[in-house]
Design brief:
The chain has one domain (2-48, 90-197): Rossmann fold (3-Layer(aba) Sandwich). 43% of the residues are buried. The protein has helices at 28-34, 129-135, 148-161, 182-192, and strands at 2-7, 40-46, 67-70, 73-76, 100-106, 140-146, 165-174, 196-197. The protein contains 4 helices and 8 strands, in the order βαββββαβαβαβ. The protein is globular, with a radius of gyration of 16 Å. It is α/β, with parallel strands linked by helices. Strands 5-2-1-6-7-8 form a 6-stranded parallel β-sheet. A two-stranded antiparallel ribbon has the order 3-4. Helices cover 20% and strands 24% of the residues. The protein binds pyrazine-2-carboxylic acid and zinc ion. Residues 8, 13, 46, 78, 115, 146-147, 150-151 line the site of pyrazine-2-carboxylic acid (VGL).
Length: 198
Amino acid sequence: MHALLLIDIQNDFLPGGALAVPGGDGIIPIVNELMSGFDIIVATQDWHPPDHGSFAANHPGKAVFESVDLHGLPQTLWPVHCVQNTGGALFAPTLDTRRIARVFPKGTDPQIDSYSGFFDNGHRGDTGLGEWLKGKGVTELTLCGLATDYCVKFTALDALSCGFKVNLHLAACRGVDLQAGDCVKAVAEIREHGAMIR
Ligand code: VGL
Ligand code: ZN
């Protein structure tokens, strides 16, 4: 069984959102079209409490995009984004959500960030996504969504380490490129770990 995994296609990551990914809205028609080729569609949703440790606003004296130590892990500080039960955390209104079988929230623990849809950044907690997919007989995944150099990258790497065959649908991904070249590097790393880039 081959599932389509939609990663963080949420308002705050779209132009006009709190942590807008350039051209993020451009993937939506492609994703809507892709869905018809899959029997199982699953989504991740960045879903932070207001006191989340990845928000620069929760670190007095620190600025957005600075790095801090967050309970033993390096953490890039982000603008407040994808706060639980706010409009910014909702899926894009033009995203066709009708066939999403299940949504896996992530980043809910204020003490640790979670770029991957499978595990938090310290591999301390598990969202249940891997087990759910395996329970459905899924062996292969196609990934798309936002952002290529953060949540897509770490979700892809964890999917591979969990034993799934992984395809990255690059035309349906967009990244942040905080440093020029980050997205290109992320895609190379995903490929080197065994994913197919299509
Ligand atoms: C993401 C930064 C912070 C992402 C989520 O979805 O790629 N990036 N939270
Ligand atoms: Zn986040």
